[in-house]
Amino acid sequence: MDIATILGLLVGIGSVLVSFMMEGGHLSALIQIPAMVLVIFGTFGAATVTTSIKQLINLPNLMRVAMFEKKMDSQQLIDLLFDLSQKARKNGLLSLEKEIDSIKEPFLRKAIQLAIDGFETNKIREILEIEMAYIEERHKAGANFFLKLGGFSPTLGIMGTVLGLIHALGSMESSSNMASAIASAFIATLWGVALANLIYLPLSDKLKYKHQDEALYLEIITEGAISLAMGDNPRVIRMKLVSFLLPDKRREEGR
User: Fold this and answer.
1) How far is CA 197 from CA 32, 45, 152, 163, 231, in A?
2) Are 116 and 102 in contact (CB under 8 A)?
3) What's the rounded Cα separation, in Å, for the pair 203 and 209?
4) How many other C-beta atoms are found inside a 10 Å radius of the C-beta of residue 228?
């Protein structure tokens, strides 16, 4: 689990609920089914119009990416590439063929295979950058979907409030009932703003942040594979790849 994501959502949502209860409110007052239907389903409907049904189907996968950590240890990756470069320098690139099956990361496996197959370095970079660009577009689409949800949600909340007020003002026989109806009408706005600022927009930024981490990881793989293909000295390869890490990260890992 991604502790930061889970903790952030719990603290954000919890602070709203606790403050509401401290003011004397009851949680049952927030459960307005018509408002929830309009805001939640209306928001997803509007966002789906701007993308595709495929993106909506992919939503559970996006949630999984945001909620769970994907293990990407850059230092461990650099150590692996260093070990591979030592073996290649000692026994030749073809000796790495037996190492391919033990590599679980698809992008790394493909990069090493390209180096083993003797592709020119500019061709290796071109192939890997095309795949990186595709990965970036896929990640960007997921982040933008949540961004659109965050944009539509408050507007749908306002629409729900307007519809509630129309209903309330159309029933003016009892002033007490009208006051209650007006109060209930604003629940839709609360749902729209809360979902946007506590869930949709934070998850969008989280996906962007995770893409930055993965992009760095893939860049290290690309440079490592090209260095392998060029036959660079293993120590030079390590120094080059360590330069991708932040200075404090290098000190922490003893590099």
Assistant:
1) 19, 19, 11, 22, 51
2) no
3) 10
4) 26
